[in-house]
Amino acid sequence: MNSRALGIVATILAGLVLHFTPLRAQNRPRARELGVAPGILPPGPLNAITDVAGVLVGQVTVIEADSVRTGITAILPHGGNLFLERVPAAIVVGNGFGKLLGSTQVNELGELETPILLTCTLCVWKAADAMVEWMLAQPGMEKVRSINPVVGETNDGYELNVAIRSRPITAAQVRQALTSARGGSVEEGSVGAGTGTRAFDWKGGIGTSSRKVPASVGGYTVGVLVQTNFGGVLQIMGAPVGRELPHKVSANKSRTRANADGSIMMVVATDAPLSDRNLKRLASRALMGLARTGSVAGNGSGDYVIAFSTAPEVRRGRDAPRLTTTELGNTEQLSALYEAVIESTEEAIYNSLFKATTMSGKGGTVEAIPIDRVREILARYGIRPR
């Protein structure tokens, strides 16, 4: 077989990997199937960020030959034109070693005017350019002269996405992530922006979770979606899994980033009518959920939280002369929302690990965390399926 034929076969196989990865993920459990249910609040029906009414998620997985393992995850607060119907938002930085495009305007004005995109580090600007082009083409945008795209990232350019320097996403793939965004269940693990990531030295990825607060404190929902690519010593509901679970490294060459800090993007949605000021307070509590899993937000880690409210009564029209006064004040209802975001963030991170599948690339193989071993360790610490 000549080199051209081999190249064609490699491309076909790459497509097959793309097609069958979600099927493998379906066979791996979410956290609750292992008895891992952090906190005291119940999840929403899907236990996903899409339990917050109106939130849409779209994902495109990009796998090419043996050197591209990356993707795009799009989060839309509602299905309308966000530039014309903005939502209050805030961004909190736990550790700022990252490239979160658009953050200064969000925190200056307290509003989000585009969807949120997550992708790989060197793909941020291509993703932003494609989203701006897509938005400018929407009806009602003919006279727009400024737009603030919000794009976050983690660096997957090690074992799996070794061709990161080629910035391997296209405008068509960004548009696909945006236009395919839907409510309902959210695919987790080695998909979208989580395709090439790793966390706690195991395969990381996309994870999500939600919580519903009691009716007595508003009955609101909080949902979280994470892109995990960070380090630390894994704890699961206090069980020292990272300490007890020997790590097996399988690579074509010596491991290149032992104990790497990595990064995490956390996106928080709620239907509680919060101002951007209280959304910033809510976002800061997501970092507590991150800490519960064993992260220390190390020197090389980019730890970011983007929070927004979908409540119709706090949405903002473009150039609106007055803002709403119907948001929640400084009330104890906020404490319930804080609990909800901490629990949701913690569980979303576990889901990103448990649903992720082993993946190989030109730089080596990143193993999925072994579920059977995790189950054994959890059982020793009294954590079992109910």
CATH class: Alpha Beta
Sheet with most strands: 7 strands, mixed
List the secondary-structure elements in sequence, H or E. Answer: HEEEHEEHEHEEEEHEHEEHEEH
Radius of gyration: 20 Å
Instruction: Indicate the CATH architecture.
Output: 4-Layer Sandwich
CATH fold category name? L-amino peptidase D-ALA esterase/amidase
Can you walk through the features of this model?
The chain has 386 residues and is an alpha+beta fold. It has a single domain (3-380), classed as L-amino peptidase D-ALA esterase/amidase (4-Layer Sandwich). Helices cover 28% and strands 23% of the residues. It contains eight helices and 15 strands. The chain has helices spanning 3-26, 103-109, 124-136, 171-179, 241-244, 276-292, 333-355, 371-380, and strands at 56-64, 68-76, 85-96, 111-112, 116-120, 150-154, 198-199, 202-203, 206-212, 221-230, 262-270, 302-309, 316-317, 359-361, 364-366. The strands form four sheets. Strands 3, 4, 9, 10, 11, 12 and 13 form a seven-stranded mixed β-sheet that branches. Helix 3 (124-136) crosses helix 4 (171-179) and helix 6 (276-292) crosses helix 7. The N and C termini lie far apart (55 Å). Residues 1-23 and 249-258 have low confidence and may be disordered.
